[in-house]
Specification:
By secondary structure, the chain is an alpha+beta fold. It has helices at 2-21, 35-46, 50-63, 73-85; strands spanning 23-28, 65-71, 89-92. The longest helix has 20 residues, at 2-21.
Length: 93
C-alpha cells in the first residue's frame, strides 16, 4: 500500500510542475502577411500539420488572435523569435 501512495504523490507532483511551466504562444492578426505565408511559417516553426496551420490562420484572421503552440518558455522563446523575424506579431503568455 505504501508504494501506491508514493506513486500517486509523484504523479500529482509531476502534473503540478507541468501546469506551472506551461505557456502559450499567441499569434495576433495583421494586415501585412498573407495566409499562405502564415500557414507555411506555422508548419515550419511551430511544427503544425497543414490543416492545423490553416485553422490557426483562419482563427487569427477572424478572432484577432490564436494560441498556436503550448510549451515551456525555453521551447516557445526561439519559436516566437523566428515568427517575429518574419514580421508576425506574437507574444508568450
Amino acid at each position: 500500500m505504501r508504494n501506491a501512495t508514493r506513486f500517486f504523490e509523484e504523479e500529482e507532483f509531476d502534473t503540478l510542475l507541468l501546469e506551472v511551466e506551461q505557456k502559450q504562444l499567441i499569434l495576433f492578426n495583421d494586415d501585412v502577411n498573407t495566409f499562405d505565408d502564415v500557414i507555411r511559417w506555422l508548419i515550419e516553426i511551430c511544427e503544425h500539420e497543414p490543416v492545423q496551420a490553416e485553422q490557426c490562420a483562419f482563427l487569427v484572421h477572424h478572432k484577432g488572435k490564436c494560441s498556436v503552440k503550448a510549451g515551456t518558455w525555453e521551447d516557445l522563446k526561439p519559436r516566437a523569435s523566428a515568427l517575429l523575424d518574419r514580421g508576425l506579431s506574437v507574444e508568450i503568455q
